Amino acid sequence: MTLFTSTSFFFFAALAPRWTVGQYGYSTELGTTGATTPTRSYAPVFTVPASADYGKPVLPNIRDPQAVDPQSVCPGYTATNVHNTKAGFTADLNLAGAPCNVYGNDIENLTLVVGFQADSRIHVQIQPRYIGPENSTWFVLPEALVPAPIDEEGTDESSNQMSISWSNDPTFSFTIKRKENDDTLFTTEGTVLVYEDQFIEFGSSLPENYNLYGVGEAIHGFRLQNNSTRTLFAADVGDNIDANIYGSHPVYHDTRYFTVDGDGKNMVYAANATDTTARYVSYTHGVFLRNAHAQEILLKPTDITWRTLGGSIDLYLYSGPTAEDVTRAYQQSTVGLPAMQQYWTLGFHQCRWGYENWTVVEDVVDNFAKFEIPLETIWTDIDYMRDYRDFENDPLRYSYSQGAQLLAKLHANNQHYVPIVDSAIYAPNPENATDAYPTFDRGVEANAFMLNPDGSLYIGAVWPGYTVFPDWVGAAINGTGTVDWWIKEFEIWSKDVAFDGIWIDMSEVSSFCVGSCGNGNLTLNPVHPPFELPGEPGNLVVQYPEGFDLTNGTEATSASSVGYSQTHTSTATSTSTSTTTSYFRTTPTPGSRNVNWPPYAINNYQGELGKHAVSPNATHHGGSLEYEFHNLFGHQILNATYQALLNVFAGKRPFIIGRSTFAGSGKWAGHWGGDNESLWAFMFFSIPQALSFSIFGIPMFGVDTCGFGGNSDYELCSRWMQLSAFFPFYRNHNTLSANSQEPYIWSSVISATKDAMRIRYLLLPYMYTLFAHANRDGSTVMRALSWEFRDEPWLADADRQFMLGSAVMVTPCLQQGASTVGGVFPGVGHGTVWYDWYNQTVVEGVQPGQNVTIDAPLGHIPVYLRGGNVIPIQEPGMTTAASRKNGWGLLVALDGKGHADGQLYLDDGESLVPDATTWVDFHVSGSSLTAQPRGSYVDTNPLGNVTVMGVSSAPSKVLLDGKTLDSSYWTYSDPEKLLLLNGLDDLFPTGAWHARWRLTWS
Predict the structure, then answer these.
(1) How far apart are CA 352 and CA 358, in angstroms?
(2) Strands 918-924 and 900-906, sheet pairing
(3) Strand partners, 214
(4) Keywords of this protein's UniProt record, alphabetized (predicted)?
(5) Which of the residues are catalytic?
(6) Is the pLDDT confidence value at 275 over 90?
(7) pLDDT at position 274, please?
(8) DSSP string, 452-507
(9) In 310-437, which residue ranges form alpha helices assigned H by DSSP?
């Protein structure tokens, strides 16, 4: 029997017991596909019934023919009592007619505050005017959780790049324009404002064929479709295309292209700019809604509509005018600058779910060394845990003593270890004295966990069984001990496990049942999840990449047969006799809210808000409901983990990779793309994912290289290992019981990996410098081509190529079976010079906007250098520590006028506040390269070589600080236009950046 009540949302599992083989302890057997498949040993455990996670069928309003359009029935508001302020104006907004109460209770009296907060930022805030019985259900996001930007001194409308006007015709609306060209950036004209306690709707018209980017997290192309809906509700759902997944980032960029006349005075909006002979200019502005509620953003052909299930309108517009300007302003003023990463985190990381014990982990590490593939960090998934519990290792398979020996060996070799930590805490069985779990006990003592409405512990289910969930909101708002407890647990665990960083998972926050299903059922703990794990009977991993059947016909046929059998059996046992679905709908109740099933149903992939997640009416200490804070759980656990690692590693930068994120999470952590699939499509989608997270202010991004779900193959893994070598976070990871996909599994992948890793490790100083800039000013690391080349509208949806900083362009092959790839070379119409990384010669004969066919045989990834850049490099080693001890080099890619610039950032690579830093500025002009160091960090590695590309003619002499270099130090290659200097080490005995120097050729 199951019991649901609208007030408590409890779920009691008084069910016929279902037992499975115990989930604790591993043995292995050979599965159908030849993969190693885990089987469980010893005690049987109760399995949470699958029905516990079904929830009620909810039809999203955007697909519901019975849904009411608020614009057709709601009255809007009228502005009165308008008062100018020093930096803006205020007004009262009063309901302009009878309340519509369509998806909640209308709030009749609102306050409008407009602020010109900075020269490039406008703030529009609309919230309830009164706090009292008539507005008892209003909510404004606490600044203790998400700080709001403040006004800069001396800013007003006259200095702002934008203007704002308002009207009451026929109801209140506002319009924001760019002063420079009178372009309307955001306007609510022609719509009515809807403001209810469980539903807010506002929007803006958009120009034809608009270019919007951001609004995530979602798996989608980089440029957003103009006939789609983005849902922001953190969900443990895997990487589902065009659906809400882990994070919530209510921010977008809007890029608009204009044709200009000869003198640049007249601009005309270019809706379909394909004429490569025309002259274009672009402007980008940004929009951020500081609201953490469940949201939908409707992208219609001519407008954008924002719908939220609560909160307030707290809107920020950034004028740009470039995408980089918007990103910088968003981070600098609003969400915070990205965390500076330790140098070692830019090395290669290896993980999988299914490393059964320390011995297997050590074998993997040894295999990387055997095949001479750099390995920086080994990771472990939930396999290492004692019965899937945080902060406790399995005593048999991952003992502390054996782990200490392995981790000491790793650290002696300057390698690192990162374990996973899940977001739910096991609740021990009260009738089993051997099931004691001190982490839980200490958490209860600290009031660290979420509650049911009646004050009892909210108990859901995750990997270890019935679990409780940390209450980060209670800690931030009401001062509970949650964060202090979390910090202490890491401190205790770190004494047994010498980890170097932390991987936070399941932080949406996920629960494998609807409601407080563990309440009254803890005597069943530990329990098995309500689904079969990969490799268990009926859930063998038999998926292979597209095209696998072309080269592996027999194995593909066998896998297909097993897959059909599994699907057919599953369907046969679960098919319903019903041919119709009875959807659950709710209507507003005057004076109250239904938080479990709001009247407006968002297009949540899981269905109702409480499915596979902690229920909306779970209660935080102090009385706040999870309904208001669901999208912030992942954000706040990253904050708490950051503080915990600062405590464990005093003075060092924490390294954290998290799954669920919100606006501003980048100041604490990086992000990986979640549970993708070993399919070519997901390799492609990794690029727009990464570019979107550049917009979101989380540059430390990467995906599960070669794919997480399913089986990879040598072709896909070869391409993917090379592509991910140019992502900031570089990790290979796959699922339990799938075929192994470490890069040494296939000989072809070994070769491809080594080639790409060599380039990456050569570029580590350049990448580290990009991160230093991101940390200091909010600039991006991975960049869209359109950001760097603003006057080429045909790049608006380019997401199969990308830039690493401003100097490196990557054009990966993303198509199965292909040996070539199409790519554009931006800027060539305005004199941009591109050099092939491999032969260091100029790319000739390309036209603006031309899609060029580029050779890309398997094992080769096309990489190009943009003229005008000086790129510092360092000879690679097997670890980043070894690389940092090697000699320096410079790649100088001259532009068409013989100029180039660049920078290098140096510090100790780990300190939160380094004692010493050095910046080196490089400049090339008039056949002269200068290096100018600034700072006190000492690097004693010499400069070994300099490669100058694009030197038009052979020099007769080369000088270093005015002294002629012997011809043994340099050569010139006429066909390639290359000046090569080698063996310079002895000329820099105290280090390459000890003092200013100049290299000239003539």
Answers:
(1) 13
(2) antiparallel
(3) 252
(4) Glycoprotein, Glycosidase, Hydrolase, Signal
(5) 505, 508, 675
(6) no
(7) 79
(8) -TTSSBP-EEETTEEEE-B-HHHHHHH--SHHHHHHHHHHHHHTT---S-EEEEST
(9) 323-330, 358-370, 400-412
Q: Which amino acid would we find at residue 480?
A: T
Q: Hey, CA dihedral for 842, 839, 819, 726, is it positive or negative?
A: negative
Query: How confident is the prediction for the chain on average, in pLDDT?
Result: 92
Helix 764-777 and helix 747-762, axial crossing angle in degrees, nearest 10: 60
What does the CA dihedral 22, 23, 26, 32 come to, rounded to 10 degrees?
90
Q: How confident is the model at residue 561 (pLDDT cuts 50, 70, 90)?
A: low
CB 317 within 8 Å of CB 285:
yes
**Cα 154 to Cα 18: distance, rounded to the nearest angstrom:** 68
Contact at 8 Å (CB) between 681 and 721? Answer: no
Ramachandran angles phi, psi of 642, nearest 5°: -60, -45
Mean pLDDT value of segment 365-379: 98
Q: How many CA atoms lie within 13 A of 652 on its CB side?
A: 17
Q: Got the DSSP string for 940-992?
A: -PPEEEEEEE---S--S-EEETTEEPPGGGEEEETTTTEEEE---GGG-TT-T
> Is residue 458 predicted with pLDDT exceeding 80?
yes
What is the distance of C-alpha 314 from the center of its chain?
23
Whether residue 43 has pLDDT greater than 90: no
Q: Evaluate whether 635 touches 508 at the Cβ level (below 8 Å).
A: no
Q: Which residues of 567-591 are buried (b: 16+ CB within 10 A; e: fewer)?
A: eeeeeeeeeeeeeeeeeeebebeee
15 or 987, greater pLDDT: 987
Which of 908, 894, 920 minimizes the C-alpha distance to 992? 920
pLDDT of residue 579: 56
Q: Which two tokens stand for residue 375?
A: 């390995």
For residues 469-476, average pLDDT:
96
Angle, vertex CA 270, rays to CA 268 and CA 274, nearest 5? 135
Under the phi-then-psi rule, with left for phi > 0, alpha for psi from -120 to 50, and beta for the rest, what region is 697? Answer: left
Of the candidates 256, 270, 79, 112, the residue with the CA atom closest to the CA atom of residue 184? 256
What residue type is assigned to position 304 of the chain?
I
Q: Are 249 and 696 in contact (CB under 8 A)?
A: yes
Separation CA 472–CA 8 (nearest Å): 21
**Residue 34: per-residue pLDDT:** 36
Tell me the one-letter amino acid at 174: F
Kindly provide the residue ranges of all beta strands, DSSP E only, lying in 774-868, ordered along the sequence. Answer: 782-783, 802-804, 808-810, 820-823, 834-836, 852-855, 863-866
Residue 7 predicted with pLDDT over 70: no
Start-to-end Cα distance in the chain: 89
Amino acid letter for position 588: P
Say if residues 297 and 235 touch (Cβ distance below 8 Å).
no
Cα distances from 149 to residues 8, 321, 386, in angstroms, run 37, 20, 44
Check whether 580 has a pLDDT greater than 90. Answer: no
| CB-based burial, 335-373: b 16+ in 10 Å, e otherwise | bbbbbbbbbbbbbbbbbbbbbbbbebbbebbebbeebeb
Cβ atoms within 10 A of the Cβ of 954, count? 12
64, 596, 583, 578 alpha-carbon torsion, rounded to 10°: 150
Amino acid type, 516: S
Q: Kind of pairing, strands 730-732 and 527-528?
A: unpaired
Burial of 29 from C-beta contacts in 10 A (0-12 / 13-18 / 19+): exposed
Cα 314 from Cα 844, distance rounded (Å): 50
User: What is the arrangement of strands in the sheet containing 527-528, beginning at the earlier edge strand?
Assistant: 19-20, 45-47, 527-528
714-724 vs 680-695: helix crossing angle, rounded to 10 = 20
If you write DSSP's letter for every residue of 143-187 in order, what string do you get?
A: TTTSPPP-PPTT--TTT-SEEEEEE-SSS-EEEEEETTTTEEEEE
Over residues 471-478, the mean pLDDT reads: 95
Domains, the chain, ordered by start: 70-335 (2.60.40.1760), 764-1001 (2.60.40.1180)
Q: Average pLDDT of 293-316?
A: 97
